[in-house]
Amino acid sequence: MEKRIAIVFGTRPEIIKFSSIIKHCREQGIGFFTVHTGQHYSREMGKIFFEQLGLPEPDFRLSVKSSAPFMQGEHTGKMMQEIEKLLLREKPTDVLVEGDTNTVLAGALVTAKIATVKQLVSFRPRLGHVEACLRSYDRSMPEETNRVIADHVSDLLFAPTEQARENGLKESIAKEKIFVTGNTIVDALQMVEKRVQSGNALEELKLRSGRYALLTLHRQENVDVRERLHSILKGVSEFSRKHGIKVVWPVHPRTKKMLGKFSIAIPKEVRAVKPLGFLEFLQVEKNAAIVLTDSGGVQEESCIFRVPCVTLRENTERPETVQVGANIVAGWKPEGIAEAAEKMLSRKRKWQQPFGNGKAGKKIIDIVLRE
């Protein structure tokens, strides 16, 4: 049966990590279509990412919204309804989801449910989970629930590392379902490497290479709790004052909203800027003295770029970055942040990134075609 792959995404990180898979499908003439759920609501920012990665506009846009950020069930349910209608109409042979978002949960559950009614709908799509078997072991994070459920209903699990594969095996996921492929973030960074090197984002932001810290902050457990958001900014500003390193902060729309709601002033040591395009962000990230973040993807990117990272959370689903010496998990209290940042500033950048050789996208599609 000829393959027709549905690639379902909804956030900017998912677009980035699917980019090499989409390009490989196009180059090899493999049948596929893309579905954008609209989980990241900035259409303009999404457009920039497609353009900079050389990707076609999505074949289908669902533009699903929830009435409030905490309405996780409503958000997931609305996406499930729209994804189900689309998949029943288009009848793909395989559905690919990536990561740990509500989009992943919705796409995974719908595909698994359709598989149970093959006799009624005349097709049975397989579910593939890209970046499978990551674990923080913190069920207070919505992302952890999403990734665990997606893994356990998937037919094909594309684990980025051997450690991720071991996570799946410990949960009794059948070993024949799990494939270690590397992480497609390496593919994406290699695809844009020359443009990152030749970009002018530093000049436009008046930054000097190696003379600033980069801050990113967006996870709900940090930005939706006043005490934590205030505490993190206090720790970042204390580090900045002690070491004389200015901090540049592309402020996520969600975080900006919560700063206003909580009446939290941005410290004078922190320079807030508008969100950056993919290439601009990578230029700023690659040239930073240190990265302070609560993002899983930024932990990976900084590790690959050999830029020291401090994770502003109490756990990470990317433990490989800590094990190779690229990252310290600092938590959200000021003293922990300042101490971790000081350690990372003095650490030699000799680690080897653990995420593969940049051929993950090809490996994933080859497995989908073969299995």
UniProtKB/TrEMBL annotation:
Pfam families: Epimerase_2. InterPro entries: UDP_GlcNAc_Epimerase_2_dom, WecB-like. One of its GO terms (molecular function) is UDP-N-acetylglucosamine 2-epimerase activity. Coiled coil: none annotated. Transmembrane segments: none annotated. Its EC number is 5.1.3.14. It is an enzyme of class 5 (isomerase). Keywords: Isomerase. Residues 29-368 form the UDP-N-acetylglucosamine 2-epimerase domain. This is UDP-N-acetylglucosamine 2-epimerase (Non-hydrolyzing).
